[in-house]
């Protein structure tokens, strides 16, 4: 049995996970990221202790604690090199958490951990696998030969910062035109707001009034209800997503590429146009055998992946 | 000792290569790609026989023949799945060449083979390594954990077909805006021609008249001689190249990325602005430790890499 902790900027989500990646019990506590490193690590340790106690398992049954943390990670030493949203630099997470729990700790980048969770739950017999999450940004994880690919210094797999439009809109990373500027849910919301400004009579505008917010569902819901302006937004958005996927497949030709994040709940409505665009645009159209699909674990991917990555 | 064969659309370049990747003897014969598969393979076998005879080595000293072939390759079976410029589809290269030579044959994609050659000659102790060639297109090879990365079905590592400008100029692959449209030498020549049209008084126009041609050196030579229009061409071209490299480093963070192709002879004049752009634009600016450099083997990379990849 393992404990998986998905450390986010908002919540510390933790779970007791069996050897097959099933969550037996989980809990969540606010991160309150403005606090000190020590206070946050203390809460992570308390989460682990609570899970052990509440599940009524023996401490000795817990083989390891796996943490998925934002930022660039020195996996060998369990150090968070840099996690902007937590304000951490060279934070010795493994050392501190082992001191508090007395259990062996492994630290992985959160997107890598989620990718590994999806990978294992997808069957785990795939050689090369890519997982992308469409969210505030575009996160990603790469599994090569069954192992998490991290890059030389833990700074790899930042697939959201592959350029889509050279010289395009500014990304939060400081480079212009990154894929995540256009293909993330944040990008979709911006595109939806622009379309509402230009089409004040569209259903999207009505939904904004009724719901008091524009979110990743606004354009999708209006498009499904037949609104033309919304259909155009969705079509363009999915082409941005698809073009970035096409680039990744030209580079990796993984056996499987899964799309996750809240928006992936759109299922085939999201996937079919992406698949069509990709198949028409792959470099090796007749040869490429990458299977595109929707991720399965939802928000649990982080906990499960963190736990399972502590196993290897 | 190995024989390495770099099969190109123009020439079949072959070499006798020692275990350390040194070429002991080499020869070249025109491919005449319009000929049948059998005729071309016969010439490859003859090249190997000539090398053995001319070098006065025993057949038994040749451990294997490695071939770098264009196209998508089924490495396990030594089949060229699809090589457009040779007109080959599912061509059983390993089988035919083994039949003719009686020596074990290994077939690798040509860009992968060249990358592997550069990798081994760079020291071979690097874990993750990327090699790109700026030529007619942009070729690339990816070494992960010391092994050539091929993708699920031999269709990976097509880094030239990573999008740089979504919806941009049409690429020969059928997708718009691929990196190689802007960052290849073909792209540079197009950009130089455009600049000459707009600046008929520039040194570039003078060089075109004198040399009777616009090539990859035209803008570089004129820029070095102080021509402002040429400096602008070179600056923009190198930014296209750099942005594509930046994307690859955001995805892979390899330990080393080398740039090859004829234009890489420009050395630091090419590399310094690329390095500067990348360091300012990497996602993990303070963390990323990828070393950018110029490839060393020139045209021999294909022969050496093909030979050495037969070794593994």
Counting DSSP E segments of at least 2 residues, the number of strands of chain A comes to 13
CATH topology of the largest domain in chain A: Nucleotidyltransferase, domain 5
Estimate the global geometry of chain A from the Cα principal axes: globular
CATH class of the largest domain in chain A: Alpha Beta
What's the CATH architecture name of the largest domain in chain A?
2-Layer Sandwich
Chain-wise SSE layout:
Two copies of one chain form a homodimer.
Chain A: E1 2-7, E2 11-17, E3 23-30, H1 37-55, E4 64-69, E5 72-74, E6 79-83, E7 88-91, H2 93-101, E8 105-109, H3 110-121, E9 129-134, E10 138-144, E11 147-148, H4 179-183, H5 185-198, H6 203-211, H7 218-224, H8 228-252, E12 256-260, H9 268-281, E13 291-294, H10 301-309
Parallel strand pairs in A: 1-4, 4-8, 9-12, 12-13
Antiparallel strand pairs in A: 1-2, 2-3, 5-6, 6-7, 9-10, 10-11
Helix pairs in contact in A: 1-2, 3-10, 5-8, 6-7, 7-8, 8-9
